[in-house]
Design a protein that fits this description.
By secondary structure, the protein is of the alpha+beta class. The protein has four helices and twelve strands, in the order αααββαββββββββββ. It has two domains: 53 residues, no CATH class; 142 residues, no CATH class. A four-stranded antiparallel sheet has the order 4-3-7-8, with no helix packed on it. It has a four-stranded antiparallel sheet with strand order 5-12-9-6, with no helix packed on it.
């Protein structure tokens, strides 16, 4: 009767072979055709040879083909350059970026800023709705210091995680401090005549982005300006 486990059948044949061999070594036993038949089936072969009775599918192993190695990239002052000819490529990229900053040919800039746990992609004259009551008054000027990214026409400066406050400046003005639309929370308990209607609003702050400026070359040393935040820095 065929079995789904080839190793089990092989073990049975080996056990039968041992019994027949013991009988063969005794004086009162003569070899029979059954012993020769068992040897012909491969039960007396080593275990490594018996593995051939298993199907090829049970002996297949996954072959891992290594993927081609991608070129290593290094970050140099906000610009990505390849590891090959690193020094020359870094110098060329830095000179090109610094020339655009000096000549003011960067084009229209946009930035990604971080305010009260959320990120906003902004350009000059954009309005930003902040779901919080910021401690400022209307018409106050703010400097948004948590800048994650600045993009120009030909290059992008990435922060790790933030860009230095002496490299980029994003200014904004508070234009309005409204309340959100009225929201209702209805509470009802069955068979108790308990009904409550709760109405609430959230404070908001609307900012207008005045300007986004790059203040210095990307590889210029910091001027040592105090990094402490004032009341009007976020």
């Amino acid at each position: 009767m065929p079995t789904a486990y080839p190793w089990l059948a092989s073990a049975r044949l080996r056990c039968l072979l041992k019994c027949l061999t013991w009988l063969h070594e005794s004086d009162t036993y003569k070899p029979s055709s059954l012993l020769r038949t068992v040897h012909a089936l491969g039960a007396g072969t080593p275990r490594s040879e018996n593995r051939g009775l298993c199907s090829d599918a049970t002996r297949l192993k996954p072959v891992i083909i290594p993927s081609p190695a991608a070129p290593r990239l290094s970050v140099v002052e906000g610009s990505l350059v390849s590891s090959s000819n690193n020094v020359e490529e870094t110098r060329r990229v830095s000179e090109s970026v610094n020339a655009q900053i000096t000549e003011d040919t960067t084009g229209r800039l946009f930035a990604v800023i971080y305010i009260y746990g959320k990120q906003f992609k902004v350009t000059p004259k954009d309005l930003v709705l902040v779901q919080a009551d910021m401690l400022v008054d209307i018409r106050d000027s703010l400097r948004l210091e948590k800048v994650l990214l600045v993009n120009a026409r030909d290059f992008t400066l990435l922060g790790r995680p933030l860009l230095h406050r002496n490299l980029v400046r994003v200014d904004a003005t508070v234009v309005e401090k409204p309340l959100s639309q009225t929201k209702q929370n209805f509470v009802y308990i069955k068979r108790s005549h308990y009904e409550r209607h709760h109405f609430y609003q959230y404070p908001q702050t609307i900012l207008c982005i005045d300007s986004i400026k790059l203040l210095r070359d990307v590889d210029a040393p910091s001027d040592g300006e105090d990094s402490s935040r004032s009341r009007f820095s976020y």
